[in-house]
Amino acid sequence: MRSPCGLADAVGVTPMALYNHFSSKRALLSAIAESVISAVEFDGRQADWRDQVRHCFDVLRKLCRDHPGLHRLLEIEGAMPTNVFAPMEITLRALHEAGLDDLDSVRTYFLLTGFTLAQAAYQTRPIPDIEPFREDPNRTHRGPRLYSHRAL
User: Fold this and answer.
1) How far apart are CA 84 and CA 38, in angstroms?
2) Is residue 42 within 8 Å of residue 97, measured between CB atoms?
3) In this predicted model, what pLDDT tens digit does every residue of 58-69 receive, in sequence order?
4) Which one of 12, 17, 112, 123 is separated from 94 by 20 to 30 angstroms, measured CA to CA?
């Protein structure tokens, strides 16, 4: 995520020129988030609810990996655009089709969202010396391995 000064430099204007178009920094950040989110299609129009949920979260993970500052941007009070709820609506609809009630659908959505955001954060900023996707020939523990395949 760029600062308003960095953004102004990138588009070739002064920082104050940005505020000729936006009433505040929050309004500017909200417009950036809205632009990033609206550029993707969360609804894969999949016939099977599993494929629909998988598509939605694959898109979310890719979006977060392509824009590592997005989740922090959405945490700024007043910067969250309304289109941020598109994945939630799509996922809840698919989970209802699967037979989950409202409460279990919401719980499942937030569980998948938390997992996806954490995975994307790790993939954009891996923790040094910890790589769960690589086999260690010196490993003595032969328990379950972690794989980099889809969560669903």
Assistant:
1) 9
2) no
3) 999 999 889 888
4) 123
pLDDT bracket for residue 15 (50, 70, 90): confident
For 80-132, the DSSP string reads: --GGGGHHHHHHHHHHHHTT--HHHHHHHHHHHHHHHHHHHHHHHSPPTT--T
- Structure tokens, 104: 């279990």
pTM of the model: 0.70
Tell me which residue has tokens 């379950």. 144
Sequence-ordered list of residues with C-beta below 8 angstroms from that of 92, at least 6 positions apart, any chain: 105, 106, 109
Homologous superfamily (CATH) of 4-124 is Tetracycline Repressor, domain 2 (1.10.357.10)
- Structural domain spans, the chain: 4-124
> Measured between alpha carbons, how far is 6 from 70 in angstroms, rounded to an integer?
16
Q: Do 120 and 72 meet the contact criterion of CB atoms below 8 Å apart? A: no
